[in-house]
Amino acid sequence: MRRDLQLSFEGIRTWSSRERVNLVKIEDLKTPGVDPVPAWENADFDELVERVVTARRNGRPVILSMGAHVIKNWLSRYLIALIQKGVITHLAGNGACSIHDFELCYLGGTSEHVPTAIEDGSFGMWEETGAWMNEAIQQGAKRGMGYGCALAAYMDEHPERFPHLDDCVLYQAYKADVPATYHIALGTDIIHQHPSVDFAAIGACSGVDFHKFCYSVSELEGGVYMNFGSGVIGPEVFLKALSISRNLGHPTRQITTANFDLIDLGDFRKPIGYDNPNYYYRPRKNIVNRPVSTGGKGWHFVVDHKVSIPNLYARVMEKTGGEGFTHA
User: Does the predicted TM-score (pTM) go above 0.70?
Assistant: First the structure.
Protein backbone atom coordinates (compact mmCIF):
# COMPACT_ATOMS: atom_id res chain seq x y z
CA MET A 1 0.00 0.00 0.00
CA ARG A 2 1.15 3.53 -0.70
CA ARG A 3 1.33 4.47 2.98
CA ASP A 4 3.94 1.72 3.49
CA LEU A 5 6.36 2.73 0.72
CA GLN A 6 9.94 3.37 1.84
CA LEU A 7 13.10 4.48 0.05
CA SER A 8 15.88 1.93 0.24
CA PHE A 9 19.37 3.24 1.07
CA GLU A 10 20.93 0.42 -0.94
CA GLY A 11 22.99 1.90 -3.72
CA ILE A 12 23.84 5.16 -1.96
CA ARG A 13 27.28 6.30 -3.10
CA THR A 14 29.89 7.54 -0.64
CA TRP A 15 33.22 9.30 -1.07
CA SER A 16 36.35 9.33 1.04
CA SER A 17 36.51 12.36 3.31
CA ARG A 18 40.25 12.52 2.55
CA GLU A 19 39.33 14.20 -0.75
CA ARG A 20 37.14 16.85 0.86
CA VAL A 21 37.84 20.54 1.42
CA ASN A 22 37.25 21.36 5.10
CA LEU A 23 36.23 24.78 6.36
CA VAL A 24 37.35 24.00 9.94
CA LYS A 25 40.84 22.63 10.54
CA ILE A 26 42.59 21.29 13.62
CA GLU A 27 45.45 23.78 13.30
CA ASP A 28 42.97 26.66 13.68
CA LEU A 29 41.68 25.57 17.10
CA LYS A 30 41.90 28.27 19.77
CA THR A 31 44.17 27.43 22.69
CA PRO A 32 43.52 28.56 26.29
CA GLY A 33 46.38 30.62 27.66
CA VAL A 34 47.80 31.23 24.18
CA ASP A 35 45.13 32.93 22.10
CA PRO A 36 43.93 36.30 23.44
CA VAL A 37 40.56 36.36 25.18
CA PRO A 38 38.16 38.82 23.49
CA ALA A 39 37.13 41.74 25.69
CA TRP A 40 33.57 41.49 27.03
CA GLU A 41 32.14 43.42 29.94
CA ASN A 42 28.76 42.24 31.20
CA ALA A 43 27.61 42.48 34.81
CA ASP A 44 25.10 39.65 34.44
CA PHE A 45 27.82 37.39 33.07
CA ASP A 46 30.00 38.28 36.06
CA GLU A 47 27.19 37.12 38.34
CA LEU A 48 26.81 33.91 36.35
CA VAL A 49 30.53 33.20 36.70
CA GLU A 50 30.23 33.69 40.46
CA ARG A 51 27.40 31.17 40.51
CA VAL A 52 29.47 28.68 38.51
CA VAL A 53 32.37 29.03 40.95
CA THR A 54 30.08 28.74 43.97
CA ALA A 55 28.36 25.69 42.53
CA ARG A 56 31.62 23.84 41.97
CA ARG A 57 33.08 24.83 45.33
CA ASN A 58 29.96 23.33 46.87
CA GLY A 59 30.29 20.18 44.79
CA ARG A 60 27.23 20.99 42.69
CA PRO A 61 27.04 20.24 38.96
CA VAL A 62 27.69 22.57 36.05
CA ILE A 63 26.07 21.22 32.88
CA LEU A 64 27.07 22.64 29.50
CA SER A 65 24.74 21.99 26.58
CA MET A 66 25.69 23.07 23.08
CA GLY A 67 25.03 23.12 19.39
CA ALA A 68 27.63 22.15 16.83
CA HIS A 69 28.82 25.68 16.13
CA VAL A 70 30.79 25.63 19.38
CA ILE A 71 33.02 23.00 17.76
CA LYS A 72 32.95 24.77 14.39
CA ASN A 73 34.06 28.00 16.09
CA TRP A 74 37.39 26.31 16.96
CA LEU A 75 36.61 26.03 20.70
CA SER A 76 37.24 22.32 21.34
CA ARG A 77 40.32 22.98 23.46
CA TYR A 78 38.38 25.37 25.68
CA LEU A 79 35.73 22.71 26.31
CA ILE A 80 38.44 20.18 27.10
CA ALA A 81 40.13 22.60 29.49
CA LEU A 82 36.82 23.32 31.24
CA ILE A 83 36.33 19.57 31.66
CA GLN A 84 39.86 18.86 32.87
CA LYS A 85 39.76 21.77 35.32
CA GLY A 86 36.59 20.38 36.88
CA VAL A 87 34.35 23.24 35.76
CA ILE A 88 32.05 21.24 33.47
CA THR A 89 30.62 18.15 35.15
CA HIS A 90 28.39 17.11 32.24
CA LEU A 91 28.62 17.94 28.53
CA ALA A 92 25.55 17.51 26.31
CA GLY A 93 25.11 18.03 22.60
CA ASN A 94 23.21 17.08 19.49
CA GLY A 95 24.38 14.62 16.84
CA ALA A 96 26.20 17.26 14.80
CA CYS A 97 28.40 18.05 17.81
CA SER A 98 29.61 14.46 17.87
CA ILE A 99 30.17 14.37 14.11
CA HIS A 100 32.33 17.50 13.90
CA ASP A 101 34.27 16.35 16.96
CA PHE A 102 34.73 12.86 15.46
CA GLU A 103 35.88 14.22 12.10
CA LEU A 104 38.42 16.58 13.65
CA CYS A 105 39.76 13.61 15.62
CA TYR A 106 40.40 11.30 12.67
CA LEU A 107 40.70 13.72 9.76
CA GLY A 108 42.02 16.92 11.29
CA GLY A 109 39.23 18.84 9.55
CA THR A 110 35.47 19.13 9.38
CA SER A 111 32.62 21.21 7.90
CA GLU A 112 32.19 20.77 4.18
CA HIS A 113 30.81 23.41 1.81
CA VAL A 114 27.12 22.49 1.91
CA PRO A 115 25.71 24.86 -0.76
CA THR A 116 27.67 23.16 -3.55
CA ALA A 117 27.61 19.61 -2.13
CA ILE A 118 23.81 19.49 -1.90
CA GLU A 119 23.54 20.17 -5.63
CA ASP A 120 24.78 16.72 -6.67
CA GLY A 121 23.82 14.64 -3.63
CA SER A 122 27.35 14.38 -2.27
CA PHE A 123 26.54 16.34 0.89
CA GLY A 124 27.31 14.24 3.96
CA MET A 125 28.20 11.14 1.97
CA TRP A 126 31.60 10.59 3.59
CA GLU A 127 32.65 6.99 3.87
CA GLU A 128 34.90 7.10 6.95
CA THR A 129 32.56 9.29 9.01
CA GLY A 130 29.45 7.26 8.27
CA ALA A 131 31.03 3.81 8.39
CA TRP A 132 33.12 4.31 11.52
CA MET A 133 30.54 6.22 13.56
CA ASN A 134 27.76 3.76 12.72
CA GLU A 135 30.06 0.85 13.50
CA ALA A 136 30.96 2.40 16.85
CA ILE A 137 27.32 3.05 17.73
CA GLN A 138 26.22 -0.46 16.75
CA GLN A 139 28.99 -2.02 18.82
CA GLY A 140 28.14 0.27 21.71
CA ALA A 141 24.44 -0.62 21.55
CA LYS A 142 25.29 -4.32 21.86
CA ARG A 143 27.29 -3.48 25.00
CA GLY A 144 24.55 -1.31 26.51
CA MET A 145 26.63 1.85 26.16
CA GLY A 146 25.53 5.43 25.66
CA TYR A 147 26.20 7.28 22.42
CA GLY A 148 29.13 9.35 23.70
CA CYS A 149 30.83 6.43 25.43
CA ALA A 150 30.34 4.20 22.37
CA LEU A 151 32.25 6.66 20.18
CA ALA A 152 34.99 7.18 22.78
CA ALA A 153 35.43 3.44 23.38
CA TYR A 154 35.74 2.92 19.60
CA MET A 155 38.48 5.55 19.49
CA ASP A 156 40.23 3.84 22.38
CA GLU A 157 40.13 0.53 20.53
CA HIS A 158 41.32 2.01 17.19
CA PRO A 159 43.83 4.71 18.14
CA GLU A 160 45.66 4.33 14.84
CA ARG A 161 42.65 5.87 13.08
CA PHE A 162 42.48 8.91 15.36
CA PRO A 163 45.68 10.99 15.41
CA HIS A 164 44.05 13.96 17.18
CA LEU A 165 42.69 12.37 20.35
CA ASP A 166 44.16 15.15 22.48
CA ASP A 167 41.79 17.61 20.81
CA CYS A 168 38.68 15.40 20.84
CA VAL A 169 36.10 16.69 23.30
CA LEU A 170 34.07 13.50 23.72
CA TYR A 171 37.21 11.40 24.11
CA GLN A 172 38.78 13.68 26.70
CA ALA A 173 35.50 13.76 28.62
CA TYR A 174 35.52 9.95 28.58
CA LYS A 175 39.08 9.88 29.93
CA ALA A 176 38.17 12.40 32.64
CA ASP A 177 35.11 10.34 33.66
CA VAL A 178 32.81 13.23 32.77
CA PRO A 179 29.58 12.24 30.96
CA ALA A 180 29.36 13.49 27.38
CA THR A 181 25.86 12.73 26.14
CA TYR A 182 24.39 13.14 22.67
CA HIS A 183 20.68 13.53 22.08
CA ILE A 184 19.75 12.46 18.58
CA ALA A 185 16.85 13.41 16.34
CA LEU A 186 16.64 10.66 13.72
CA GLY A 187 17.20 11.90 10.18
CA THR A 188 19.08 15.05 11.16
CA ASP A 189 22.70 13.85 10.92
CA ILE A 190 24.85 12.94 7.93
CA ILE A 191 25.59 9.48 9.33
CA HIS A 192 21.83 8.77 9.03
CA GLN A 193 22.31 8.96 5.25
CA HIS A 194 24.88 6.16 5.23
CA PRO A 195 23.99 2.68 3.91
CA SER A 196 25.21 1.08 7.16
CA VAL A 197 22.95 3.13 9.44
CA ASP A 198 21.05 1.25 12.15
CA PHE A 199 18.42 3.53 13.65
CA ALA A 200 17.58 1.08 16.42
CA ALA A 201 21.20 1.17 17.61
CA ILE A 202 21.27 4.98 17.45
CA GLY A 203 18.07 5.16 19.46
CA ALA A 204 19.33 2.67 22.04
CA CYS A 205 22.59 4.54 22.63
CA SER A 206 20.98 7.97 22.70
CA GLY A 207 18.35 6.61 25.09
CA VAL A 208 21.08 5.55 27.52
CA ASP A 209 22.53 9.05 27.25
CA PHE A 210 19.16 10.60 28.06
CA HIS A 211 19.03 8.58 31.28
CA LYS A 212 22.52 9.84 32.13
CA PHE A 213 21.47 13.40 31.40
CA CYS A 214 18.40 13.01 33.61
CA TYR A 215 20.63 11.88 36.46
CA SER A 216 22.81 14.98 36.16
CA VAL A 217 19.76 17.25 36.01
CA SER A 218 18.29 15.54 39.08
CA GLU A 219 21.40 16.68 41.00
CA LEU A 220 21.09 20.29 39.80
CA GLU A 221 19.92 21.93 43.04
CA GLY A 222 22.47 24.69 43.67
CA GLY A 223 24.04 24.01 40.28
CA VAL A 224 24.19 25.67 36.87
CA TYR A 225 22.87 24.72 33.43
CA MET A 226 24.25 26.63 30.42
CA ASN A 227 23.21 26.25 26.80
CA PHE A 228 25.42 27.51 23.99
CA GLY A 229 23.62 27.75 20.68
CA SER A 230 21.31 24.73 20.71
CA GLY A 231 17.97 26.11 19.55
CA VAL A 232 15.81 22.97 19.78
CA ILE A 233 17.44 19.76 21.03
CA GLY A 234 19.17 21.25 24.09
CA PRO A 235 16.20 23.17 25.49
CA GLU A 236 13.71 20.39 24.77
CA VAL A 237 15.83 17.65 26.35
CA PHE A 238 16.54 19.85 29.38
CA LEU A 239 12.88 20.62 30.06
CA LYS A 240 11.91 16.94 29.88
CA ALA A 241 14.78 15.90 32.15
CA LEU A 242 13.83 18.60 34.63
CA SER A 243 10.21 17.45 34.66
CA ILE A 244 11.30 13.85 35.26
CA SER A 245 13.57 14.96 38.12
CA ARG A 246 10.80 16.91 39.83
CA ASN A 247 8.30 14.13 39.23
CA LEU A 248 10.61 11.77 41.12
CA GLY A 249 10.96 14.22 43.99
CA HIS A 250 14.49 15.48 43.41
CA PRO A 251 15.04 19.04 44.68
CA THR A 252 15.70 21.14 41.58
CA ARG A 253 14.25 24.54 42.48
CA GLN A 254 17.27 26.69 43.33
CA ILE A 255 19.05 26.40 40.01
CA THR A 256 20.82 28.80 37.67
CA THR A 257 20.22 28.70 33.92
CA ALA A 258 21.79 30.64 31.07
CA ASN A 259 21.31 30.65 27.31
CA PHE A 260 23.93 32.01 24.91
CA ASP A 261 22.93 32.88 21.37
CA LEU A 262 22.95 35.64 18.73
CA ILE A 263 19.20 36.25 18.87
CA ASP A 264 18.25 39.44 20.73
CA LEU A 265 15.12 38.80 22.79
CA GLY A 266 14.88 42.23 24.37
CA ASP A 267 13.48 41.96 27.90
CA PHE A 268 13.64 38.16 28.09
CA ARG A 269 11.91 37.99 31.48
CA LYS A 270 8.87 39.98 30.37
CA PRO A 271 5.78 37.84 29.59
CA ILE A 272 4.94 37.75 25.88
CA GLY A 273 2.03 36.34 23.91
CA TYR A 274 1.52 34.13 20.88
CA ASP A 275 1.67 37.15 18.57
CA ASN A 276 5.35 37.69 19.37
CA PRO A 277 7.70 35.45 17.32
CA ASN A 278 10.09 35.26 20.28
CA TYR A 279 7.44 33.27 22.14
CA TYR A 280 8.29 30.30 19.91
CA TYR A 281 12.03 30.46 20.56
CA ARG A 282 12.48 27.35 22.67
CA PRO A 283 15.47 28.40 24.83
CA ARG A 284 13.59 31.45 26.11
CA LYS A 285 10.85 29.33 27.64
CA ASN A 286 12.62 26.05 28.31
CA ILE A 287 15.87 27.41 29.75
CA VAL A 288 15.60 31.05 30.78
CA ASN A 289 12.06 31.30 32.21
CA ARG A 290 10.13 28.15 33.03
CA PRO A 291 12.81 26.18 34.94
CA VAL A 292 13.34 29.04 37.42
CA SER A 293 9.69 30.06 37.88
CA THR A 294 9.73 28.83 41.51
CA GLY A 295 13.33 29.72 42.39
CA GLY A 296 16.78 30.35 40.99
CA LYS A 297 17.64 32.71 38.15
CA GLY A 298 17.88 32.54 34.36
CA TRP A 299 19.64 34.68 31.76
CA HIS A 300 19.84 35.12 28.02
CA PHE A 301 23.16 36.45 26.67
CA VAL A 302 23.49 37.83 23.15
CA VAL A 303 27.12 37.08 22.33
CA ASP A 304 29.29 35.06 19.96
CA HIS A 305 30.61 31.71 21.26
CA LYS A 306 34.14 32.85 20.38
CA VAL A 307 33.67 35.54 23.03
CA SER A 308 31.57 33.83 25.69
CA ILE A 309 33.37 30.52 26.13
CA PRO A 310 36.94 31.90 26.31
CA ASN A 311 35.68 34.49 28.83
CA LEU A 312 33.97 31.79 30.87
CA TYR A 313 37.19 29.82 31.09
CA ALA A 314 39.43 32.84 31.75
CA ARG A 315 37.25 34.29 34.50
CA VAL A 316 36.75 31.02 36.32
CA MET A 317 40.48 30.37 36.19
CA GLU A 318 41.15 33.87 37.48
CA LYS A 319 38.88 33.27 40.46
CA THR A 320 40.51 29.92 41.25
CA GLY A 321 44.11 30.89 40.68
CA GLY A 322 44.21 28.67 37.63
CA GLU A 323 43.56 25.56 39.70
CA GLY A 324 39.94 24.99 38.79
CA PHE A 325 38.10 22.35 40.78
CA THR A 326 40.04 19.17 40.21
CA HIS A 327 39.74 18.55 43.95
CA ALA A 328 35.94 18.90 44.03
Answer: yes
